[in-house]
Design brief:
The chain is mainly beta. The chain is built from two helices and 43 strands. The strands form nine sheets. Strands 1, 3, 4, 6, 39, 40, 41 and 43 form an eight-stranded antiparallel sheet that branches. A seven-stranded antiparallel sheet has the order 2-5-42-7-8-9-38, with no helix packed on it. The radius of gyration is 25 Å and the shape is globular.
Length: 552
């Protein structure tokens, strides 16, 4: 009898210990359980056991057939109050989530989860990006995981592709950086080059005989290049001896192999390429004005231009295709059928690049050298002049900060908020020229790259550390995971390790910030799509654990 009682007491004690242990793991953010866990099937509640208060902003819809949270890409996001249980601190941490995007998009995809303080340049981001700067779609549906703790490097000379006057266009495609350049000599043509390391650019061939490859874009996993005769005198340099017209678009097959997909009617120089609602759109850089949609089988359909004005540089944002004008400084937007005038951007006659930062659209201008934020039709808010420069062209949101490139000194600046821009460096120092341009930007291998005129060189810059998924994220449900350790950043897709970035041993990151954790929002834009089973861990998940999460 005593033996039976002792066995019973031991069983009860063991059950209690297991229950206590289970409860402790749930509450202990440093144990196996997540420090934050948002299933998002019916509400925004954190079920990690840490009871992190989570507030819904904007229109977030829960449930439906997918049992997920739907984010509208306009104002919807979740705010998780600043709590030590959710913070990654200076140790390892991991993020895991199921995300869903549609195959046809009319918006910037946006941030999945972030916690970042611009004033300290400290925090992290897991984002899905489609950048445009300024003639090209420089990335498309690219998953990016970045961290920073005020770790700022220097701009580095990455060499000159061929005999380039400048790289007109840059784009990330399948983990490689491509540059379309202007080579203005009599026996030269515009070409595309692939970055192969410092001072090393691989010649991918000349699509046609014009002097420039003016725009690049990625659509449906293919790289497209547009050509043109660039009027070099527009940059106060001797005119190009190559006068061959371009205006054609090509699909890249292999180095030296380009397949033409059509000539834009009446166009000698393509001004921009962008993907909108699953279609490729193009514009004319010079008069006569032209705006076109690719409808397959080498057919480019000419569409109307607003007020017969040129629309040149383009970006997709909040359901519209936005376009700059080089004729009188207005911005227009297109809904797939007609144009709407968004108003004159300050006291300017031209505007160039667009950029999306913290959910807002920004436009760059000439001759004021200022950047403006779009706050509604005919409402453009001046957010400052970049030094004493006259023109802003290249723009990009990179690892939490908005950057801008200028003319006439080819300087680069970082936006600090309000109307403050901090000068970073002058990239092109060619003597005895009137204009130097910091023309276009693209992200690659965790860095931002910027092209210049007239040196033709491309420069790179790194702030903190970032790792990028090679290629565009496929639509539909995908499981993504990001892991930070003391030695690396890793990106997993559907349980498979797809990209890794080394962190030097001497580089330590303290990511504790006094700002809320954001789900569905960040330094880039509001997320457009669905999220479910969002998890944050204060440790590095093992590969097997990520595989398990990706198969649930």
């Amino acid at each position: 009898m005593n033996l039976m009682l002792n066995s019973l007491h031991q069983a009860v004690l063991l059950t209690a210990l297991l229950a206590f242990s289970s409860c402790s793991v749930k509450k202990d953010s440093k144990g196996d359980a997540p420090s934050g866990h948002w299933p998002l099937t019916e509400n925004a509640e954190d079920v990690s056991g840490n009871e992190l208060p989570t507030q819904v902003h904007g229109s977030v819809t829960f449930g439906g057939g997918d049992k997920a949270a739907i984010f509208d890409g306009r104002s919807a996001w979740l705010e998780v109050s600043d709590g030590q249980e959710a913070l990654p601190g200076n140790g390892d941490f991991s993020i895991a989530s199921w995300i869903h995007t549609e195959p046809v998009m009319d918006d910037f995809p946006g941030d999945i989860i972030s916690q970042y303080d611009l004033s300290k340049r400290k925090g992290f981001h897991l984002s899905l990006k489609s950048n445009a700067s300024p003639t090209s779609q420089s990335s498309y549906r690219q998953l990016t995981f970045g961290i920073d703790d005020g770790k700022e490097g220097a701009w580095t000379d990455e060499g000159r592709p061929g005999t380039a006057l400048m790289a007109f266009a840059m784009a990330e495609h399948k983990g490689e950086l491509y540059a379309g350049v202007c080579q203005p000599g009599a026996k030269e043509t515009g070409k595309v080059f692939k970055y192969a390391g410092k001072d090393n650019w691989t010649d991918c061939g000349a699509p046609d005989s014009s002097n420039s490859v003016t725009a690049l874009a990625v659509m449906d996993g293919e790289l497209y290049a547009a050509t043109g005769h660039y009027r070099v005198a527009g940059s106060s340099l001797a005119e190009s001896e190559n006068t061959t017209a371009g205006g054609r678009v090509f699909r890249y097959e292999a180095p030296g192999q380009w397949t033409e997909i059509g000539q834009l009617p009446g166009v000698a120089c393509v001004g921009g390429l962008v993907v909108y609602n699953g279609k490729l759109y193009a514009s004319s850089m010079y008069a006569p004005s032209g705006f076109f949609r690719y409808d397959g089988d080498n057919k480019w359909t000419k569409l109307t231009n607003p007020e017969n004005k040129r629309v040149v540089n383009m970006a997709v944002y909040n359901g519209y295709l936005y376009a700059t004008s080089w004729d009188h400084g207005n911005v227009y937007r297109y809904d797939g059928n007609s144009w709407e005038d968004c108003g004159l951007v300050g006291d300017n006659t031209q505007n160039y690049a667009f950029n999306i930062y913290e959910g807002n659209l920004y436009s760059a201008t000439w001759p004021s050298g200022r950047v403006f934020r779009f706050d509604g039709i005919n409402k453009w808010t001046d957010v400052g002049r970049l030094g004493n420069e006259l023109e802003v062209m290249a723009m990009m949101t990179y690892n939490g900060r908005m950057l801008g490139g200028t003319l006439p000194l080819a300087e680069v600046y970082a936006y600090e908020g309000d109307t403050l821009w901090t000068r970073m460096d002058q990239l092109d120092r060619t003597p005895d020229v009137k204009y130097r341009r910091a023309w276009t930007m693209s992200e690659h291998n965790g860095k931002v790259f910027c092209s210049t005129l007239p040196s033709g060189k491309i420069f790179s810059y790194e702030s903190g550390k970032a790792v990028l998924l090679p290629g565009s994220l496929e639509p539909g449900w995908q499981h993504v995971a990001a892991v930070k350790t003391g030695s690396s950043l890793k990106l997993y897709l559907n349980g498979n390790l797809e990209a890794e970035k080394e962190i030097p041993g001497a580089m330590q990151f303290d990511l504790n910030v006094g700002v809320p954790l954001k789900i569905g929002f960040g330094a880039n834009d509001y997320f457009k799509g669905k999220l479910r089973d969002v998890r944050l861990y204060r440790r590095a998940l093992e590969a097997a654990e990520i595989t398990s999460l990706a198969t649930k």
